[in-house]
Amino acid sequence: MTLDVVILAAGQGTRMRSSLPKVLHRLAGKPMVRHVLDTARGLDADGIHVVIGHGADHLREALAEAEVRFAVQPEQKGTGHAVAQAMEGVGRGKVLVLYGDVPLIRRDTLLTLLEGVDEHHMALLTVTLDEPTGYGRLLRNAAGEAVAIVEQKDASQTELAIRECNTGIMAMTATQLRRWLPQLSADNAQGEHYLTDVIAVAAAEGVRIATVHPAIATEVEGVNNRAQMARLERAHQREIAERLMAEGVALLDPERLDVRGTLRCGHDVEIDVGCVFEGEVELGEGVYIGPHCVIRDSHIGAGTIVEAHSVIDGAVVAGLNRIGPFARLRPGSRLAVGAKVGNFVETKNVEVGEGSKINHLSYVGDARLGRDVNVGAGTITCNYDGANKHRTDIGDGAFIGSNTALVAPVSIGEGATIGAGSTISKDVADHTLAVARGRQVSRPDWPRPIKDKPY
Ligand code: UD1
Ligand code: CA
Questions:
Q1: Is 120 a catalytic residue?
Q2: Which domains does the chain carry?
Q3: CA of residue 79 to ligand 1 center, whole Å
Q4: Which of 10, 135, 166, 296 would be 73's cystine partner, CB 3.0–4.6 Å?
Q5: Which residue, by CA, sits nearest to atom 22 of ligand 1?
Q6: What global pTM score does this model have?
């Protein structure tokens, strides 16, 4: 059977108090609706349909490359009405209804839900809550079979005491849904076409309703305001932290870690507090990340030590490197084994050879450094002439004295030495000393000025 996933995302999300549509607010660095889309993709869905209404243009734009079909619900007349808008594009197999503001639903839970669907069965994800206020309650008959959902606003006193709640997530065949949707009425407290009413229609037809429960509560948690958003973010980060620790990562405080993307770690990686990992990050065996580092889309090789407050973006670090504290590696920074980049050093689009050191207060960009190069404090590659970028090439074993400006394009030969304070604008040959600074003048007979005598 084919599978179509319908994601409801037409609501306004007023309580976010934001000009951004609610489902585009980010959880773990990714818009909520993207989490749902990625999960839907993981089910090998034949079609993914997003029902949009409020902020429709914004959503179309944000999901332009997502290969989804949009169904517009111009007026929010209820969840049943919303699903109906998507039906035109839906196939003949199974249909799964998801929500753009319930971002952490898991693939395994949905697979279990879908297994329960055929011509004689539909499936509903329910959760038993201590505090069920606001949720639709599941009514069961004497035999324990699910027979209806009653919304909070329509429920009687006895019904309100029921703690088994509708998560909203459900699956059925497209044939069933096409048969049931026209039977929904708006004769209820909110004057809406409730999708939840299909349960009663199904039960009346003799279709059985299989109920499935999420593995953990956060899977079915929806976001309505920023406080819930922040709580869900923390809960999600805590899960990521638990997973990392189970894989052998030492986290100095699992409450103070943020992963916004994918973090892969070898054994015995140690991560100090307050670090943020974005995009795809890989940390090799035994890597240590000091406190308050930000690492994005980078590979950090085994045995590397990254000291506090370093920012690493788009870098590839081979291994046994020392970085920071307060280092900034920008995209295209590639460090060979054992290279060091120290405090207040910025690198960009640079290849640093084995064992080379840029230890203090430097900017090195658009450059290649051979092996065992020593770059003194305060060295700057002047790579930009105001219009174009130019390259600096430094040979193996070269020694760049402190406070040197290397005016690119320029190349420094193997084993060359640059005197401190030089401004180097011409190539320097191998094994040559180059000094380009004003000569020191010493005058032992120089009379120091003295103050004029007061009269
Ligand atoms: C709904 C369920 C309720 C369930 C709860 C779980 C119904 C009638 N009720 O209630 O049983 O316990 O979810 O959170 O389904 N939406 C549209 N178009 C609409 C209306 C809603 O796209 O016309 C979208 C909203 O953007 C939202 C979702 O559907 O993402 C749920 O709508 P909402 O009005 O929040 O439903 P609840 O009252 O929470
Ligand atoms: Ca509602």
A1: no
A2: 3-220 (3.90.550.10), 226-434 (2.160.10.10)
A3: 6
A4: 10
A5: 10
A6: 0.93
